[in-house]
Each structure stands twice: as C-alpha cells, then as structure tokens.
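Reviewers asked in the last cycle whether our approach scales beyond single polypeptides. To address this, we selected a multi-component target totalling 1000 residues and predicted its structure end to end. The input consisted of the following lines:
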Amino acid sequence: MREILREFSHRLTALFRRRHLEEELDAELRSHLEMSVELNLRKGMTAQEARREALRGFGGVEQVKETYRDQRGVPMIETFLQDTRFGFRMLRRNPGFSLLAILCLTLGIGANAAVFSWIEGTLLRPFPAVAKQDRMMALTGTTRGVSGSTGVSWPDFLDFQKNCTLIESFIGDRIMGTTLSIGDRAERASGSIVSANYFDALGVRPILGRGFEPGEDSGRNAHPVTVISYRTWKDRYNDDPGIIGRTQRLNGVQHAIVGVAPEGFYGTFVGYEFQFWVPASMQETFDATGYKLEDRGARWIEGFVRLKPGVTPQQAQGEISAAAKRLENDYPTTNRGSGIKLFPLWQTPFNQAGTLLPTLEIALAVVVFVLLIACANVSNLLLVRAFARRHEMTVRLALGCGRGRLLRQLLAEGLILSALAAAGGLVVAHWCHNALVLLFPAPKGIVIHLPGKIDWRVLALSAAVGVIATLLFALVPALQAGKIDLAGALKSESGGVVGGRGKARIRSSLVLVQVSLSFVLLVGAVLLMQSLQRMQQASLGFSSQGVLATSVDLFAAGYDTKRAKIFEDELLDRLQALPGVQSAAFSRIRPFSYRTYSSAPIAVEGYQFAPDEQPTVDYNEVGPAYFVTMGIPLVSGREFTRRDNETAPPVAIVNEPMAAQYWRGKDPVGERFQSNGRWIQVVGVAKLSKYGTIQERPKPFFYVPLRQFFSVQGSLQVRTQQSPSAMAAALVQEVHALDPDLAPQETITMREQVDRIGYTQRLGVTLLSVFGGMALLLSAVGLYGVMSYAVSQSTRELGLRMALGAGVSDLMRLVIRNGLVLTADGIVLGAVAALGLTRLLGDMLYKVSPRDPLAFGAALVVMTIVSLAACFLPAWRASRTDPVRALRD
Amino acid sequence: MPTSKAEVLQGTLDLLVLKTLDSMGPMHGFGISLRIQQVSRELLQLNQGTLYPALLRLEQHGWITSKWGISENNRRAKFYSLTRAGRKQLEEEAESWDRMSAMINRVLRTS
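The resulting structure, written as structure tokens, was:
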C-alpha cells in the first residue's frame, strides 16, 4: 500500500517537471547506447556494426521511451490535459457556437445556483454568524387537536431546560417591536426578548461589552439591559466606542446598553434584521398583554434548541415530548393538551422560513426544468456541430484514435462549456442574492433580511450541476460521434429531406422534451397567475378600499390603561370631526397583520361538546363602530357602542359559522357563552370575513368590546375617501395636538395590508413567470435551431419541389407544418406531465383547480404562437431557395 | 492488458535488478544490463531498453535511488543504488522465490 501511494506521488510530481525529466531520460539512454557502442568497438566491430548491434540489443528506443513515460506520469491526467487544451482551441475556433452554448448553460446553471443560494441563505443556514446551525432546531408549542403551533410558557421553558439531557441548550426568543428615539430621530425598531443564554448558546460574541449573564432573564423587570446590533451602533450611535454603559429608553424604561453584537449577526428570525435584544425578565415592558413570566398558561416564547452531538431529532423529540407529558400531568389546569414540537430550521413555523418553504420548493423544481431545457439546447447545438466535425472525427478514427478517447475528448469539451457556464452562473446567482428582499413588501421600521448565500456548499452543488449537465448534453452527441461508420462517412452525405426521419430524430426528440417541459412551466405560471387574480378578487368580508389603517404605539410611549383609554376616545372624537372621515375605530388586532388573535376556550349554554372537541375560539377586541368602519355587515343584532364599557355587562358579537356551529342556526342574539371565566351575552351576529389569510377556511370567531378586554397596543382603522398620505398628515396633527411626544406609525390602506400577507403568492408568480419565460425563450431557440438546420440540410429537396412548381407559400407551409407537428407532440407530452405535476402547487393555488382547462388552453396558445415565431424565419429562408443553385450543388 | 507471462517477467526482472545492485553496489543502467546478461550466461535475452521502465518503477517504490555520476570511462551516467527498503524487499522476494521454486521442484519430482 505504501508503495502504491509513493508511486502515485512520484507520478504526480512528474507531471510538473516533464521537460526536465524528458531531458534526463534522453541523456540516460544516450549514455547507455554510447557505452554499448564503445564496448562493441573494443570487441573489434566496425563503427557501423557497433552502432547497429548496440541498437539491436537495446530494442526500440521510442517504444522504450513511451513505456517509460507511461510509467512516469499519470496517463489519464495527461490525456485529460491534452483534451482540455484541444477543447479550448475548438471552442475558440467557433466563437458563435461557444457563446450561445455557454449563454444557455449560464441561464440554466445560474438559475439553479441562485435558488440554491436562497435556500442556503434563508432556509438551511439562515443565521450566518451562528455556530453549528446543523444541530439547531426550532421549538414550538402545540395544542392537541388543533393544527398550527403556539409559543411555550416561560415556566415550561425553564422546566424543559432543566429536565432534558439530550439537548445542549434551549434558546428562548420572541420578536417584538418598539420605538427607538435617539436624539430627535424616532424610528420603529424590531428586537427580541431572549433567554439569558442567548448569545453564549448561539456562539455569538459581542464586539463591545458582553452578552447577557445567567440570571438576567429572571425577576420581574429586574434587568433593564440591552445588546444592540452592529448596524444600530454604526447608524444610530455613530459607532461611538464609549457606548457601553450608556442608557437608551425602550418602551419608557431606561435600558443600559451592555453590548454591541458583531457585524453579520441579525438575530434569529428568518426574514427580519433585528436592532436590539433584551433579556426575558423585561417581558412585561415590551408585551402589552401583561406579565407572563410566572404564568404557565401564557404560551408566548418561541425559540430554538441545540442538540448534543450525535443526538437525532427523533431522540430529542421523544425526550421533550415525555417532559411535556409530565408537565401536563403535574399542571392539568394550564397544560392540558399542550405538547412540544421540534422542527428543522427550514420548517420553522414562526418566521418567514415557513412562508418561503413552499415557494422555494417550487422554484427548485422549476429551475431544474430550466436546466434540462438549456441542456437540450446545448445538446442540439453539439449535434449540429458534430455533423460539421464529422470529417475531423473520421480522420482521427482512421488514424487509429480509440473511440473511447474520442468520447473523452468530446466530454472534455462539454466540461469546459459547463465550467465556464458554472462560473457565469455563480455571477448571476451573486447578482440575484438580494432578489427575495426586493420582492418582499417591507412594513415600515422592519429591515428585511433574506440573503442568498454563496458558500462552499452552493459552489459544490453548482459544480455538480455542471457535471450532470455535461453528461446530459454531451453524452448523446459524443455517443453519436463514436458510432461513425468509417466507410460510410468517407462517402459524401446526400441531401436530407425536411422532416425526414433518421439522423434528425434525436434532435427532434430533444426539442420535444423542451417543448413539453416549457409547456408544464407555462401551465404552472398561468395557474399561479389565475390564483393570484382570484385572490385579488376574493371577497374578504370587509372593505379593503376606503379603509385606512394605522396605529399609535401607546404602550411603547409608556401609557397606562387609564391614559390610553382617554387618549383613544379623544383621538376618535377629533378624527370624526375631520372632513372626509366617515368613521374610525380601534381594535387590538388589525386583520391580515402578522400579530396573532387572542384565543380562549369557550363553553356554550345549552351545547354539549363531544369529548374530543376542542372548544377554543379566536377572537378580536374591537371598539365602537368597528363593523361600520371595516364594512363588515351584521346579519342580526347590533354593533358595539361606547356604552359597552367596563361597567356594562360583558357582550360579544359572533360570526356566522360560530352561530351555526354552537346554536345550530338559531339566532344566538340574547344567548350566553362562557370565556375567560366570564359569562358573555351575544348581542350580534357578523357576516363571515377573512381574518388572517385569504386561503383560510371559514371558522368560528367572535368579537368583544375593546373597553371590556382592554389592551394598550392596538390598531386604528379609519373609513375615509382620502388618500393614505393626506390622512397621515391629518393624523400627525391630531395626535400631536393630544401629545406632542407621540407619532402615528405608517398609514396604509387595508388593501395594502392584505397584499403584504400574499407575498409568497406573488413571489411564486414572479419566480415562475421569470423562469417560465426563460424556458420558453430557450425552447424557441431550440426549435428555431432544429428547423433552420433542417432547412439548410434539405436545400436540394426544396429546390426540387420549387422546380416542380411549388410556390413560396407551399414551401413555407411545409416547414411550418413540420415545426408545428413537433410542437404539438411536445404539447401533448407536456399536458400529460402537467396533469400529474401541477398538483404539487397544492396550497399555492387559491380557488383554481390544478387541472384548470383555461390554464392549459392559455399555455397551448402561447406555446403555439412562440413556435410559429420560431419556425417563421427558417420557413422564410426555405421559400427563398434558389432552385437552380440548389439542384446544381 | 498485459498477459500473465509479462507479469512474471516483470517480477523476475525486478528481482534480478535488486540482486545485482545488492551484490555489485551502485551501477548504471548499462552496467546492470551487462551484468544480468553475464550472470544468466546469456540465457536471458532481454532487450536492454526494458530495463529502464523497471528501474523507474523500483525508484518510484523507494527501493532504489539514482544519482548522476561519472562512469569508469569518463562518461556521464545515472547510477542506481539499493536503499534500505530495497534490501528488505530483496530479502522478501528472494525468500518467496525460493519457496516458490522449491514447491515447483517438489511438484515436478513427485509425479
């Protein structure tokens, strides 16, 4: 074994000293022969005899050298280098061909590299500065019988931390926002409430100061300290080196700045870049819904775990589920039905990873299609060129070149193309690394962070794609070349026939593949567009036009409940006095915002729940005139008024599905149900509307008066015909009149609010349209190539037809018909594939069947038009055939 | 592919070269070829050229080393000499050769 290694290293080093070694070999053999001649002379031979005898005894000098060289170097690498050099020469000789091939492949490989880099940067390794992300998993709570995930309560979190031995660290993390006022500049900022081990467990070392210390996450409001992000330090504090120890007001509380996070650390929320972090002890300061650190029933913290080395996700899940089970037994009142689920980072449900996953999966499938189409194109180009190089190949074969060697040579040329294209593709991917951010609608004050990341894995994957592509596109032509029939090839090829079978068959089937793949993409793109259109036309159940939404962060400004109530009443009075304002209302949650509705177990008078029924219903806390303002019709009963206040008996308005489910179609007005330990009387029934997403199914939902379930943090909706900007200006004035230190946040239409949630749909449409367009273009080029080649090869036939009286239009029809037959075959194939594949779009489609005939029809029309366009030029050229020249040649 | 005959020849040639260098000390290629012809009493008619790839292989395996020097009649020549690893290899190969020929002899005599 050692000998083999030693020999190989000898051989390798020999590759780099070839000239020197060659000279040495010459010298050595020369000296051998001279000694031999000398000896023979001494034996008495003549000079001529001596030389002949020496050479005879030695054997063939050149043969010896050849064997010696094979022993000395690595023949495989040497021939590869030769092939490469030759390949480069061939590509330089045909710059047009090379450029076109490289361009096609660059599109194909670049699209793949871009999607890989997005997946790497946002799903697989979303936190660049964090160590060992491969052992990290997202941690969420679950409720038995309810899909979706919740947070985890802080006492539970601490118990898990204590009791799970397979998990190295529990990292608690909850997104929140505040207003950061530095000097006279006040801006929304997003941050995280985190467990004290946050920075240590993530392996992130602050560049100034420290992270949080153990114990800083306990004690009610006991540790007002904060770590700020690198960018905040740079931009807002002008990279002040003496920042540590200074204080910053956050939500009305002075926090000591104890650390500055390193550059490149953006927090642990896929999609957003955070500006600051505070320990969990400060939860009450940042959460308008109250103090929760000792409440096992309040499930609010999200987070991550890092598994110990060698622990599988299943083992960890088993252990943590068992721990959750024990907590359920120990604390049945708060923990009944509560479980824990670990997710791989790329499936994290509580950040943008979950939203992007389906879109990026589809994008991945689509770019593979684009790559296949590009490969088919290059394959076609190579086939054409192989025909042109037939003479060269034949001569090489005739001179004794092995067919294997010929194959290697052609593959080497393919590899060069792929390597150049892969390099180009990575440049494309680099350009596109911020594309996801550009397509993402950013709420004001939130810095979107969705980077594509080109690391060694993306590089390796792109290289692999290049190699696979080479095999795909170069193998068929190379095998074709290997099949050259020497005798036949030396005779001249006779003229072909348009649409003739035989040689053209491979090329036609490549076009077939292209057309069918493009057709599938087209169908997918049309389906998504239809879905997007349906979503835009979908009935929301509330008016999206003429309703503006904004908010004033009273909680962050330090308002208590009493002051907030007074402020809200006065502001509503002032707004309603404004010209053009029809009505205005506060609510805790704005529909279609990322914030989650309250949800509570209910009990209904006169309704028996089935044993496994989960009687938990979402609700919203809304102020007087909310339904008028939002344009949600009431089917019976009344709207909340100012009289539904703290002193009045609790009331609620339920939606239609809730009425239907729990009162079985009877008008529930006047009936009672129990929630949050209070008996609530139903005073109205509201029409069903959409609450969080357009795709959501009808579900029970109810509203309670904001005054009876007050929250300092809320959203303000205004019904007016004024533009958002005009309204924003008026709002600033009115808010300032009440409190000069307050400023309203951005004012947008409800339509805009709805569109922000539909981001992934639009992203899907955009990606599929861009890539689908690319695919279509590539296929058109492929079809054009095949048709024009067929025309150029059959001038004799065309000339003959013309001489026999075929007119210009006859010839054009002949060529176009052939192109269309090819297209039609491709479309049939593509339609069959699409029928099976579009199902994968699944949840991305809203109210559109994956087999929608309109989508298939539209794709058919587009494909036909494109192929007509692609065939037109070759057909026109065919019609210009000069019969005299064609027949003479 | 080389036939099994060629492989046997190659192994034999290696052994002869190692043995020659062991008993004669550093030698150049021509010297080695002369010596092998003499010792085998001209029975082994090998092309002298085939010696060189074999020498290269032995050197690659680390069993011999080479150095340029001046021959007895003032000619520049490459001198090969046995290394410690080569000596060990020679012992092993000579031993296995002995075993092999003894076995073949036994087989030939017993029938």
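The first strand of chain A starts at residue 136 and ends at 143. We regard this as preliminary and will revisit it once experimental data from Aim 1 are available.
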